[in-house]
Amino acid sequence: EVATPGLAWFKNLDATNYVDLGFATGVYYLRLKAGQVALFPITPAQASLFLLANTAACRVEILVHEA
Question: Which residue of 44, 48, 51, 53 is 20 to 30 Å from 60, comparing CA positions?
Answer without folding.
Answer: 44
